[in-house]
Specification:
Blueprint: H1 21-24, H2 30-44, H3 46-61, H4 67-72, H5 74-78, H6 88-96, E1 100-105, H7 113-130, E2 138-141, H8 143-146, H9 149-156, H10 163-186, E3 190-192, H11 197-214, E4 221-226, H12 232-245, E5 250-255, H13 260-270, H14 280-296, E6 301-306, H15 310-322, E7 332-337, H16 342-350, E8 355-361, H17 368-380, H18 384-401
Parallel strand pairs: 1-2, 1-8, 2-3, 3-4, 4-5, 5-6, 6-7, 7-8
Length: 402
């Protein structure tokens, strides 16, 4: 990742030290560090997080002026700003540390054709901005940002569509194509996020079409593979072989998966076998094997390792050494979310690996579902908040002694 603010290009070729909090929090003032400390402390309290969503929705409904409070706390930690221009400060801060930005328009839960068109336009604007801006190496979009959830479900289940639904789905696919073609013409890679398993086959089919069309010479389109699913390692491997025989490059964002509780609940309610691995070890095993397999087939695959797991980052570094892959090879990116795991992002970037962070943006009320997910994830994931808190405390103590 090229740091635009520093032309001297000091490249540190040592192995990243993830315990180096000075590098991790270089971009944070003492005040910002303190704010992050109190925020993660609050998130750590399960009660506050659980009450948070319903209390926030209640206060918003009765018109209580809580937007400024959200904006200066949880929103400031996990989001870049309300608009692309509003994200400039966040983009610059990341670039100074050698970390790229992935502008993530995070408005969720829309159901109307009008909003799908607006979201598509917004993603095209992001792609236009990314072109010629080395601070923004990748773009991203969510399938449900450009199409109706229930329609994907019907297509996924191979249900018969009405004429109107056929026409509607034709438009959804046209939007995927509009985004991926534009990304191809501008030469800006774009990722397609993965969501619930019960729409994912429909999304995978479109993503495969896009990769066949636009990944002929290089990787432009990346689909997402959730390795908490029992079937995803096999399907990832199959697509790697397909890419070889059909002569296209596979773009694979490799993640563990964010919808575990929801997936399990639905499977239990509806009486089918959960598509999610039975335990964390099984997910980790498939995640590791997916990364290893991609490294072994690096001429055919480009990956983006979307993870906050330190061990996963370290073992990817080892694999890059084993397969003699350069740190700045565009076929390997590490990616994290804004406001989380800065110890990974900035230390990796400092050692000259390709790193980028999702920078979610959008009006405060519209990104609330994203923020609640972050808060819940930080509460429910074993150790995540503890990890963030202890790193922040370590840096506070280092600064106080410096
Ligand atoms: C840049 C980026 C992009 C992302 N994009 C997507 C996306 O498009 N779609 C998506 O779904 N998620 C996405 N995620 C979220 C991701 O899937 C994980 O939820 C999150 O990163 C936590 O996993 P981890 O590898 O960071 O860490 P870890 O803490 O090592 O792993 C936690 C994850 O392990 C799995 N897990 C935990 N407990 C169990 C259990 N008992 N049984 C089975 N599995 C278990 C779950 O997937 C859980 O999220 C993205 C994350 C990042 C950083």
């Amino acid at each position: 990742m090229i740091n635009q603010s520093d032309n001297s290009l000091k490249i540190n070729k040592s192995i990243p030290d993830f315990s180096n909090t000075e590098i991790a929090f270089k971009g944070k003032t003492n005040t910002e560090l303190n704010k992050a400390y109190w925020l993660f402390k609050a998130i750590n309290s399960q009660l506050i997080t659980k009450l948070g969503a319903s209390a926030t929705n209640f206060f918003l409904r009765i018109g209580a002026p809580i937007v400024p409070l959200i904006k200066s706390t949880i929103y400031a930690q996990f989001c870049g700003g309300e608009t692309i221009v509003g994200c400039e400060k966040a983009i610059d801060k990341l670039a100074i540390g050698g970390v790229g930005t992935i502008l993530d328009y995070s408005v969720e839960g829309e159901q109307e054709e009008r909003s799908f068109i607006e979201t598509t336009e917004e993603i095209l604007t992001v792609l236009r901005k990314s072109k010629n801006d080395l601070r923004i190496p990748l773009a991203v979009f969510k399938p449900t940002g450009v199409g109706r959830f229930d329609l994907y479900v019907k297509v996924n289940n191979k249900e018969t569509l009405s004429v109107a639904e056929h026409a509607e789905y034709f438009k959804v696919k046209a939007r995927f194509n509009q985004i991926c073609k534009f990304a191809h013409d501008l030469d800006v890679p774009v990722m397609i996020d993965a969501e619930e398993s019960w729409i994912q086959t429909a999304v995978d089919d479109i993503a495969l079409d896009m990769m066949r069309m636009y990944n002929r010479d290089k990787t432009i389109v990346y689909n997402t593979y959730q390795l908490y699913r029992t079937d995803k390692l096999a399907s990832l491997k199959a697509v790697v072989y397909l890419a070889a025989t059909d002569e296209f490059k596979l773009g694979a964002k490799i993640v563990r998966g964010a919808y575990m509780e929801k997936e399990r609940e639905r499977a239990a309610e509806m009486g089918y076998e959960s598509p999610i691995h039975k335990d964390k070890e099984a997910t980790d095993f498939d995640y590791d094997e997916a990364i290893r397999f991609c490294m072994e087939h690096i001429t055919q695959v480009s990956i983006i390792a979307g993870t906050h797991n330190e061990e996963s980052c370290s073992s990817l570094i080892d694999l890059m050494n084993t397969y003699r892959i350069e740190r700045n090879d565009p076929a390997v990116y590490f990616a994290q979310l804004l406001g989380m795991s800065d110890h990974l992002s900035f230390n990796l970037a400092d050692s000259a690996y390709n790193v980028a962070k999702y920078v979610p943006y959008g009006p405060v009320k519209a990104v609330l579902p994203y923020l609640f997910r972050r808060a819940e994830e930080n509460t429910s994931l074993a150790g995540q908040t503890g990890r963030e808190l202890s790193l922040i405390m370590k840096e506070k103590s280092r600064r106080s002694k410096a």
